[in-house]
Specification:
single chain, 263 residues, alpha/beta, Elongation Factor Tu (Ef-tu), domain 3, Rossmann fold, 7-stranded mixed beta sheet, 6-stranded antiparallel β-barrel, 20% helix, 33% strand
Length: 263
């Protein structure tokens, strides 16, 4: 689906935690977006902040899209103050989407904190389009409070596994350790992930050892969202493509081996 510039209506807004916002946008022209894609939102009509904000899609519905994000700066702080009924200026959907798994393939969705947003979108899509795939959601957070803010948005049908760094919920440790030790972590399973770069790099190394396919969703500061400004590039690790990769236009979904070199 080609990106479009349009207007959406903020239909619902929920504060899931003091710094975590869930929004439902009425935008029927976005209802063919793919899991893994994102939108660029105009925050304010004035110049502060000047640049749009890229936000991953948490869900695609017949009437529009849903967003799930954390307040991380002036842009997302102002977005969190939008009232229901607010008209949102959007460009999207942008970027590529996740590649679906083969039939009857186990799927591990590995999320680091708010990185769960595009994986929730993928999980919802898989449960409808690929009901024969065994879907596991692995969520890693620092505390139980952080996981409690995100779990309500995970669709029924996913097998949920939680790891917290302080041990207050689920397993004590990192979500990557939980994946490496799990019985469902086998070559036949596909890994999809989004989260901090160290987590994604660790997953890339796990996938190399196990022979699994690993697709990752990268987050980056973006100015244009269409690949023109080259402000969100990352190095390519493949010998046949040494040019930097644009997270917005070449991604945000990449095969993990294209981003992280072998260790």
């Amino acid at each position: 689906m080609q990106a479009q510039h349009g207007q959406a209506r903020l239909a619902q807004k929920k504060l899931s935690a003091p710094d975590t916002i869930h929004m439902v946008l009425d935008a029927p022209w976005l209802n063919r977006a793919k899991p893994g894609q994102f939108v660029m939102l105009r925050v304010h009509n004035n110049t502060e902040p000047l640049l749009r904000r890229p936000i991953s899609l948490c869900a695609v519905t017949p009437t529009g899209v849903e967003l799930l994000f954390k307040i991380r700066g002036i842009g997302t702080e102002r977005m969190s103050a939008w009232p229901v009924g607010h008209t949102v200026d959007i460009i999207g959907p942008l970027g590529n989407g996740f590649t679906p798994p083969p039939p009857q393939t186990p799927v591990c969705l590995v999320a680091g904190g708010i990185g769960i947003a595009p994986l929730i979108c993928l999980a919802r899509w898989l449960l409808v389009k690929h009901p024969d795939c065994d879907v596991h959601m692995l969520l890693g957070t620092k505390t139980a409070a952080e996981s409690d803010a995100l779990v309500p948005f995970i669709p029924e049908g996913c097998t949920l596994h939680i790891a917290t760094e302080d041990g207050t919920c689920g397993e004590h440790g990192f979500v990557t350790d939980m994946l490496a030790a799990a019985s469902y972590s086998k070559p036949a399973a596909m890994i999809y992930a989004c989260g901090p770069m160290p987590m994604l790099e660790a997953l890339a190394n796990v996938a190399r050892r196990t022979g699994q396919t690993c697709q990752i969703s990268l987050e980056a500061h973006m100015a244009c969202g269409i690949g023109a400004c080259l402000g969100c590039t990352v190095p390519s690790q493949t010998a046949d493509n040494s040019a930097p990769l644009r997270v917005c236009a070449d991604g945000p979904i990449f095969e993990a081996h294209r981003i992280f070199p072998p260790q």
